[in-house]
Amino acid sequence: MLPREMVEGMRRSGIVAVLVIDRAEDAVPLARALGEGGVQFIELTLRTPAALDALRAIRAEMPEMAVGAGTVLTVEQVREVAASGASFAVAPGMNPRVVRAAQDIGLPFMPGVMTPSDVEQALECGCRELKLFPAEPVGGLKYLKNMAAPYAHLNLQFVPLGGLSPANAGAYLADPWILAVGGSWIAKRDVIERRDWATITKNAKEACALAPADRKAK
Predict the structure, then answer these.
(1) Residue of 5, 120, 124, 131 marked catalytic
(2) Residue of 5, 25, 36, 43 with catalytic role
(3) Is residue 64 annotated as a catalytic residue, yes or no?
(4) With a cut of 50, which residues of the chain have pLDDT below it?
(5) What is the secondary structure of the chain as a DSSP string?
(6) In this predicted structure, what is the pLDDT of residue 217?
(7) Which of 28, 117, 130, 155 has its CA 20 to 30 A from that of 192?
């Protein structure tokens, strides 16, 4: 489970910027551009050799930014991201061994789910904040509400990722099931490669503005 303070902050913010970084030297300027746009939470995916160096750089230069590691698939990666200072970790699927490894070292972890069986595995491990992936291809918000309905009394919260955009993120953020949305559109890989920080700040501001006012007040 995520710490209460992190859950509350994520709910108020509503946005987790999902990033793929190819050059570690871009990490801090990118994080600053996102921060100027109001983004407080980052999921930095472990899809490139630069990812861990990027994570360490942001944590060192911008300790106020909550930097999570994404695409955490193995026990070894759990240990690596924890040693690098990750605020939390995220996986695309539900691997009980990986979840328990994170719990053993006190690393807040959000597994990915898509089906009721995934949810029940996550519940067995004590997880209450879950990543819905891939959100739009499996049916979007309508699918989530139907799939999660049997667990309504457990106060689960979901962070959808996959197919989210400015066109549909607002509808997700208006729903009580949603803790936050994962926004890969905010800082796309090619925009980062061009070092177009102004566009990323603009996208971040627009994304943060999608969250309803009552969410920000909670």
Answers:
(1) 131
(2) 43
(3) no
(4) none
(5) ---HHHHHHHHHH-EEEEE--S-GGGHHHHHHHHHHTT--EEEEES-STTHHHHHHHHHHH-TTSEEEEE---SHHHHHHHHHTT-SEEE-SS--HHHHHHHHHTT--EE-EE-SHHHHHHHHHTT--EEEETTTTTTTHHHHHHHHHGGGGGGT-EEEE-SS--TTTHHHHHTSTTBS-EEESSTT-HHHHHHT-HHHHHHHHHHHHTTS-HHHHH-
(6) 58
(7) 130
